[in-house]
Design goal:
Length: about 280
């Protein structure tokens, strides 16, 4: 059998997705059931425990295939967007609703109970959250719950940002969070994924996957805006030939650094550039 990556293939010794039968070994194979994320941010963990490592996050309106639900309230699921597999709270999932029409295009937006920004907001949503908008009320887009979102903060679901580097720059100073994908906390590969997806580019979740799947080989010597620079376990985005932006544990936030000093610092820590990929 070909060895499959369990991060993006739903299988464990106890259970596996039906479509993997014949490719992996498991005690039973099951059909998945589609659900939709109904919370602004749903943590996807490595095990069914709040103490388990955070691997990624699912956002409002995203679709997930659920293969197992436990009595303790956990759902073993796969994100349809990037294929990532993990455990999240079953309370974060609901039955699929109307297809999303819009997505949040800024790092964070608020939903108000009416067309008045002085009203206390009902919800806060991260970039990439998906909404079904039913009407427009002056400068607001309104969903089925009557929540009003600033129209300028949303974009049609298929719209693409022109400059993914500018998207990443909008997260400057967001705190570093392993497995995070929002302005409340984000990691290096999460920043790359969020930025590229905003530009309409399909992107895997983890940096090693990104290094294999994205772009064409380039070099540090010809570094230019939009190039991805990879080290083992890390990725940064070139803003130009002299600076990079990345979510990193040294600054514990999304930071802009001169290329020379960043490369020297990371090399001193024992890591060399493994590749430069041009999108």
């Amino acid at each position: 059998m070909v060895e499959l990556d369990p991060r993006i293939n739903p299988f464990r010794p106890e259970i596996a997705a039906k479509h993997l039968q014949g490719q992996v070994e498991a005690k039973r194979f099951v059909e998945g059931m589609r659900h939709q994320v109904i919370e602004p941010i749903a943590d996807v963990r490595r095990a069914p425990s709040h103490e388990a490592p955070l691997d990624t996050q699912a956002l409002l309106g995203e679709s997930m295939m659920v293969y197992e639900a436990t009595e303790e309230g956990w759902a073993w699921s796969q994100l349809e967007n990037d294929g990532y597999v993990g455990w999240l709270s079953a309370n974060a999932l609901g039955a699929p609703g109307a297809a999303p029409t819009h997505k949040v295009a800024v790092p964070r937006t608020l939903g108000f109970p009416g067309p008045d920004i002085k009203l206390p907001p009902m919800i806060a949503l991260p970039m990439g959250a998906r909404l079904t908008i039913v009407r427009q009320d002056e400068r607001f887009a309104v969903n089925a719950f009557g929540w009003h979102f600033p129209l300028a903060h949303l974009t049609p679901i298929k719209a693409r940002q022109q400059d993914f580097v500018a998207v990443a720059e909008a997260f400057l100073a967001a705190p570093y969070l392993w497995g995070g994908k929002t302005s409340l906390g984000i990691d290096c590969s999460g920043l790359v994924q969020v930025a590229l997806q905003a530009a309409g580019v399909a992107c895997p979740r983890d940096s090693d996957m990104q290094e294999l799947a994205l772009g064409k080989l380039s070099s540090v010597a010809s570094l230019r805006r939009g190039d991805l620079v990879f080290w083992k376990g890390h990725v940064a985005i070139a803003r130009d030939s002299e600076t990079i932006i990345h979510a990193n544990a040294h600054h514990m936030m999304v930071a802009i650094e001169p290329v020379a000093s960043a490369f020297a610092r990371i090399k001193a820590a024992g890591s060399n550039v493994t590749s430069v990929k041009r999108i």
